[in-house]
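User: Good morning. I'm curious how C2E would be positioned relative to this chain. Could you predict the structure with it bound?
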Amino acid sequence: YYQPQVDAINRNIIGCEVLLRWNHPIQGVVSPDRFVPLLEREGLIFSVGEWVMKRAIEQHLRWLERGYPPVRIAVNFSAPELHERGLATRVIELVHHSGIAPPWFKLEVTETATVKNFDQVARTLGKIRASGIQIAVDDFGTGYSTLSYLQKLPVDIIKIDQQFIKDIPYSSEDKTLVKAVIAMAHNLGLDVVAEGVETEAQAQFLRRHLCEELQGYLFSKPLRAEEFEQLIALQVSEIEEELTLF
Ligand code: C2E
Ligand code: CA
Ligand code: CA
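Assistant: Good morning! Here's the predicted structure, ligand included:
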């Protein structure tokens, strides 16, 4: 499934996060929170992760072929994938051989997953990033990161976890925290994405404090590829309409 990530100012779709679903014959759609830990435990996450990357890139290229502007795709990587040996080479080769321009491919790695073996993880991410692929620190704020940790981690984007967004604008603690995270990220030259944006008030608060991108049910839930394509088609026709008005 693909969930839109929109520009906080004009709300155009810039990219999407790729979110895995399992269509179980009896249980219906199973959430990744239930099956990703299983895949990790059984050592299957590596092949599933590779399949997700390939499918997402194919989808990106298909949308391009159909004439839509490029949609950046963000793929989640869990801790075991991040710590796998030879990961950087594998990801770089996959991306470079697939035909996607590297900046349109983004890896989301959780803050917690980067803490263990920090030096090795930083080297791996550094290689991947040097190839032009974007790196985002996911679930930011839920781990134990310090300023010096962030400074040393080769990343482009911080993704603020939804738990800090959900009580905005009512919780003044969360508002202060989110403002501080955005300011800190900008001082380090990083962009900020907020996840779990569900209300107009949250979107406005984030825009006012210069958060670059928003993601959440306010804009769209995760969609099947065909449904996502309808959204981008609508956006393209709206932009074309605006242009003809001038
Ligand atoms: P995550 O990376 O933090 O993904 C964001 C989760 O928030 C997704 O849950 C998404 O559906 C949900 N979400 C998005 N907007 C809103 C909103 O406005 N409100 C609320 N309440 N929730 C929102 P989902 O799809 O169930 O995924 C759960 C987790 O499973 C993800 O958390 C990610 O860590 C993991 N995951 C999903 N796909 C993959 C994958 O392909 N590989 C790996 N390794 N992990 C994955
Ligand atoms: Ca994510
Ligand atoms: Ca999250």
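The chain has ten helices and ten strands. Residues 45-65 form the longest helix (21 residues).
Let me know if you'd like a different ligand tried.
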